Amino acid sequence: MPATATARPNASASFTEPKFLITLVFVTSLFMFWGIAITMGDVLNKHFQHVLSLTKTQSAFVQFAIFGAYFVMGIPAGLFMKRFGYKNGVLLGLSLFAIGSFLFVPAAAAASFTYFGIALFILGCGISTLETVAHPFVASLGDQRTSDQRINFAQAFNALGAIIGPAIGSYFLLRNNTAGSTDLTSVKTLYIVIGSVIATIAILFSFVKVPALVDPHSVVDTDAANVDAEPGKTLFQHKHFVWAVIAQFFNVAAQGGTWAFFINYGHEKMGFSDATAGNYMVLFMGLMLAGRFVGTFLMRVIAPNNLLAIFAACNIVMCIIIAQSFGWPSFIALMMLNFFFSIMFPTIFSLGLKNLGAHTQQASSFISMGVVGGAVFPFLMGMVAEKDVASAYYLPIICYAVIFLFGARFSKAR
């Protein structure tokens, strides 16, 4: 797959190279599409509470199905990528994404939450494959010293997708919610459109010619290229990688729970209608987009691991304020949670992949598997939220404490 190239030890660290631009644009667009899919799941969570008469704990299975797929698909996706290359890995992810979307049609016809769970799981396998492939793919499209910036830039479009997802979901699914309604036509129509778009993207990407990438074994400059500085170590002997997997588990755990009950918080604590709370979720995701652009800029003057630790500490403060139910101050803190969350996923991913050389693709699989935290944590928060949704936001403090430790102490490649 990679071609041989020699790095210039004193070369300046550019964002990317002209030959990679088309590929970078295409792969970056994928971040937006899975952002739409994941946040649409948060709207489905609330919609299924209405039309399928589910409790908050039961509806958390939406997140379990999507994020649980990451645990199942992480290693197979990494092995597929290592055997068949980045491009074919992307095509596999898009195909599973489209198939899962189309399976919403028979699920809606049967009005079965179990069938929806199967469709969401297959869709989640597609998203998991895309994430496993796309992060090392983007990281490899240029100098390793700017890989943090490239991944955060690409993840900014993931945040854009996270804005579009709840906007579309609120308009088509929550806007016309009525008590006692069991109509799933809007769900079926919406996912037919999503599946068709993703299938089209897969066909178009199949025609993209990916330039040869750098062979890490032929590069002398270990700062510029992702070269294993200690090739005698196994993957799990690289402690910064192990901590990245742990940090990613807790990071996505916090994300899954926070996003899953955002609309519930707006409805129960602020008195908003579901549709209004869904509209605020668009702004909520907009703050994540802003945070990624701000974070990418700040990384020019603040080391990525230090910025990660600062943002994690800020989110601990935000969670404490949210749990107090202070009205608008708490709701603003809930909104800001996403601003500070913004850089965490891509920065943890990028820091965990540094200086792993030939282990990089396998490492990407395990870091992607850490996303299973998003399958577990919403259940825990849901159990607390059944009594008081505000108190549920004490739980993510544990997650942000782990992320703080990773950024402050355990993220450096040794």
From TrEMBL:
Where the record annotates domain Major facilitator superfamily (MFS) profile, the positions are 21-414
**Subcellular compartments:** Cell inner membrane
**Which Pfam families does the annotation name?**
MFS_1 (PF07690)
Q: Signal peptide span per the entry?
A: none
Question: Is the Transmembrane keyword given for this protein?
Answer: yes
Q: What is its main location?
A: membrane
Sorted UniProt keywords: Cell membrane, Membrane, Transmembrane, Transmembrane helix
Indicate how the chain sits in the lipid bilayer: Multi-pass membrane protein
Q: Which InterPro entries match?
A: Lfuc_symporter_FucP (IPR005275), MFS (IPR011701), MFS_dom (IPR020846), MFS_trans_sf (IPR036259), MFS_TsgA-like (IPR050375)
Q: Mind telling me which residue stretches traverse the membrane in this protein?
A: 20-40, 60-81, 88-109, 115-139, 151-174, 189-208, 241-265, 277-295, 307-326, 332-353, 365-385, 391-410
Looking up PANTHER family in the UniProt record yields: L-FUCOSE-PROTON SYMPORTER, PROTEIN TSGA
Q: Which NCBIfam families match?
A: fucP
Q: What is this protein called?
A: FHS family L-fucose permease-like MFS transporter
Species source reads: Spirosoma utsteinense
Q: Tell me the organism's taxonomic lineage.
A: Bacteria, Pseudomonadati, Bacteroidota, Cytophagia, Cytophagales
